[in-house]
From TrEMBL:
Keywords: Coiled coil, Hydrolase, Metal-binding, Protease. InterPro entries: Bact_exopeptidase_dim_dom (IPR036264), Cyt/Met_Dipeptidase (IPR051458), Peptidase_M20 (IPR002933), Peptidase_M20_dimer (IPR011650). It comes from the Bacteria. This is Dipeptidase. Residues 199-357 form the Peptidase M20 dimerisation domain. Pfam families: M20_dimer (PF07687), Peptidase_M20 (PF01546). It comes from Chryseobacterium lacus. The keyword Membrane does not apply. Residues 253-280 form a coiled coil. One of its GO terms (biological process) is proteolysis. GO terms for molecular function: metal ion binding; peptidase activity.
Length: 460
């Protein structure tokens, strides 16, 4: 192991230089204008896998963006770890809030990252994180210390719902067969408290439309006598959550797995500092479901949020209009054993129920995803915990995160293997936001933890 760690140490600077090249590519999967950049990024990932020593490297075409594959099979009798990551990134807007352009990476020190952090879209989500795996793999290959088989799949549509990956996994069960899946696309609980992520929430995402009059109206001639769709929609949104912070949709909590008192006590070992939490997001006061802590509200409880709302006149100056339509995007984070199909149906029924008779409504579901839990008595969890404890020199706790990676549940269902989420980001890294960054300390700790994971897992 020391040899591998030495190799990493000696090649530290080159790793950063190479990552910078990857971060310069604007692989925005949501925006078709960036198609060539996304494709270029896939090619660069394939080249990195080859250079690191992977065999059978392939840029696999799909109906959408390609999936990059590579493997190193040492011996069929050894266990196989499948590494998953995504090379696509979120759109960087609003651009004016970035200190420097999002695809021109640079390093700067911050309060939380005194050793410096790499600023660029995708630095933490997920280029900087899957790149740790390629570099750890390179180190194991170059020092002849890879202890088991490894396969890589790096996709280009995670940020738009992994549309093609589902089919790809179903059609390539043999190719992707493995004993476990290793993913770095999550974060640590905090800078001082390293964690292995043992759960992710699911997702159900809806778009709603309320139509009042058949055309936009002069608010002087018609105002006061017709339903204004913006008002109606606002009233409907207000009825989605009750005064206790509970989601009012009929049957919403039916399948929610309630944690035992012991499980909640175990969770409470993670320091839930309210002052720090508020300060970190410049917030005056928290709110949420009554009877649960902030940590519980953001991890083991399901939630509902309006993500966008529009309609009517939003341009310069004033326009006296009653719009014909109003719209909103509403998402729900799910926990075991809720399913996106069930929740989509319950949401739609409820939304129809609370709609007044004098408007038309339309509810359109977008992509969703299942929640995921990795029990802490699995060898995947134990191997990751031990690896990170060695790398960080601290006790590592389990932590259920509030984010979603829908493919984890699908991997389990189709490949019959557990995913272990060994992510190294921090909530303050501003993923999906302007000035996304990834700490150099986190990047290197990740690269060190990975060979340790392989070593532990191969022995189990
Ligand atoms: N890497 C994130 C998910 C994440 C981040 C989980 C931090 C836990 C901690 C992923 O790229 C992501 O953004 N997922 C989306 C869902 C997806 C279906 C668009 C999300 O969680 O909103
Ligand atoms: Mn991600
Ligand atoms: Mn993301």
């Amino acid at each position: 192991m020391q040899e591998t760690l030495n190799y990493i140490q000696e090649n530290k600077q080159r790793y950063i230089d190479e990552l910078f090249e990857l971060l310069k590519i604007a692989s925005i999967s949501a925006d078709p204008a960036y198609k060539n950049e996304v494709l270029k990024c896939a090619e660069m990932c394939a080249q990195h896998l080859k250079n690191a020593g992977a065999d059978a490297v392939e840029v696999c075409q799909t109906k959408g963006y390609p999936i990059v594959y590579g493997e190193k099979i040492l011996d069929k009798n050894l266990p196989t770890v499948l590494v998953y990551g995504h090379y696509d990134v979120q759109p960087p807007d609003p651009l004016e809030l970035w200190k420097k352009p999002p695809f021109e990476p640079y390093i700067e020190k911050t309060e939380i990252h005194p050793d410096g952090a790499i600023f660029a879209r995708g630095s933490a989500d997920d280029k900087g994180q899957f790149f740790m795996h390629i570099k750890a793999f390179e180190a194991m290959m170059k020092t002849n210390t890879l202890p088991c088989n490894v396969k890589f799949i790096i996709e280009g549509e995670e940020e738009v719902g992994s549309v093609s990956l589902g089919d790809f996994v179903n059609e390539n069960k043999e190719k992707l067969s493995c004993d476990c899946i290793l993913i770095s696309d999550t974060g640590l609980y905090s800078k001082d408290q390293p964690t292995v992520t043992t759960g992710l929430r699911g997702l159900s995402y809806m778009e709603v439309e309320v139509e009042g009059p058949g055309r936009d109206l002069h608010s002087g001639l018609y105002g006061g006598a017709v339903p204004n769709p913006i008002h109606v929609l606002s009233r409907m949104i207000a009825q989605l959550i009750d005064e206790n912070g509970r989601i009012a949709i009929d049957g919403f909590y039916d399948n929610v797995l309630e944690l035992s008192a012991e499980e909640r006590a175990e969770m409470a070992k993670l320091k839930d500092d309210q002052e720090e939490f508020k300060k970190s997001i410049s917030l005056k006061g928290v709110e949420g479901e009554e009877g649960f802590t902030t940590l519980e509200r953001t991890s083991i409880r399901p939630t509902l949020d309006c993500n966008g709302i529009w309609g009517g006149y939003t341009g310069e100056g004033a326009k006296t209009v009653i719009p014909s339509k109003a719209f909103a995007k509403i998402s729900m984070r799910l926990v075991p054993y809720q399913t996106p199909d069930e929740i989509t149906e319950k949401f739609t029924k409820y939304f129809e129920k609370i709609a007044p008779d004098n408007v038309k409504i339309k509810v359109t579901p977008h992509h969703g995803g299942m929640p995921y839990v990795l029990p802490s008595d699995t060898k995947e969890f134990v191997a990751a915990k031990k690896a990170m404890e060695t790398a960080f020199g601290k006790e590592v706790l389990p932590y259920r995160s509030g984010g979603s990676i829908p493919i984890t549940a699908m991997f389990e269902q189709v490949l019959g293997a557990k995913s272990v989420l060994m992510g190294f980001g921090l909530d303050s890294d501003a993923i999906h936001s302007p000035n996304e960054h990834y700490g150099l300390f986190n990047f290197y700790k990740g690269i060190e933890s990975i060979p340790l994971f392989f070593e532990n897992y191969a022995k189990m």
